[in-house]
Specification:
The protein has 237 residues and is an alpha/beta fold. It has a single domain, classed as Spore Coat Polysaccharide Biosynthesis Protein SpsA, Chain A (Alpha-Beta Complex). It has 9 helices and 9 strands.
Length: 237
């Protein structure tokens, strides 16, 4: 199952979903399901999503009455019945070939596969400012939490459903920090995380709010450092 979190994406939703469907139809060795996880959009995103769903049985439209990447993935992944769950940004910044590589890695034993834009083999097209912000943020994660993964926020992650659904109850954040929190708990609990290089093109119309996201990330790092839920997991074990 591929979750596509969206909020007010009427301009790109139809084209992106149709591009994804066309790609998946070339790889029918796997059974696919697409979930448009709509965070209560205020434009015509909902109408477009429902129309796409009515025309193709592979597509499901899901309305979530709350904004945030984290809540979109918590809701869609929790209801999944597929072997694997994934998500990607609706602008399809990450090349779709990464999806096939990720599924193959999961089939062969990985628990989580995540894109790593900082890998020297990755091919990137993004502005210098975003590059510096990304590198600084991931450095803060390493210093603050001692994590080993390299690129927490890239909008492409795939996991075994059974693993993802064990991790979801631990994750507090409902926004963009969800991705870092997912990898933090996965790493601490000993799950196998595989990072892959990707071709990635920055969306010039990104809705990212760097100051707000940076503040939220710092709060998230502080919380995981001093008040995470690992002790509760230890008691259950």
């Amino acid at each position: 199952m591929i979750a596509l979190p969206v909020y007010n994406e009427e301009k790109v939703l139809k084209e992106s979903v149709e591009t994804l469907v066309a790609f998946l139809e070339k790889h029918r060795n796997y059974d696919w399901k697409i979930v448009i996880a709509d965070n209560n959009s205020q434009d015509s995103t909902g109408d477009i999503g429902r129309n796409l769903s009515s025309r193709n049985p592979l597509i499901q439209y899901l309305n979530i009455p709350q904004k945030g990447l984290g809540i979109a993935l918590k809701t869609s992944w929790a209801m999944a019945d597929t072997d694997f769950v994934s998500y990607m940004d609706i602008d399809l910044s990450t090349s779709l070939e990464a999806l096939i590589l990720a599924i193959d890695l999961l089939v062969n034993g990985a628990d989580i596969v995540t894109a790593n834009r900082l890998d020297k083999r990755s091919v990137l097209k993004r502005c210098f400012k975003r590059e510096i912000v990304s590198q600084c943020y991931n450095l803060l994660l390493k210093i603050g939490l001692g994590v080993r993964f390299h690129d927490a926020h890239c909008g492409f992650k795939t996991a075994r459903r059974s693993v993802a659904q064990k991790l979801l109850p631990l994750i507090e954040d409902n926004g963009f920090f969800f991705a870092a929190e997912l990898l933090f708990y996965a790493e601490r609990l000993g799950y196998t995380i595989v990072e892959i290089p990707v071709t990635w093109n920055e969306d010039p119309n990104t809705k990212a709010n760097i100051p707000k996201d940076a503040f939220d990330d710092l709060c998230g790092i502080f919380r995981l450092k001093f008040k995470n839920r690992l002790k509760a997991v230890d008691k259950q074990i």
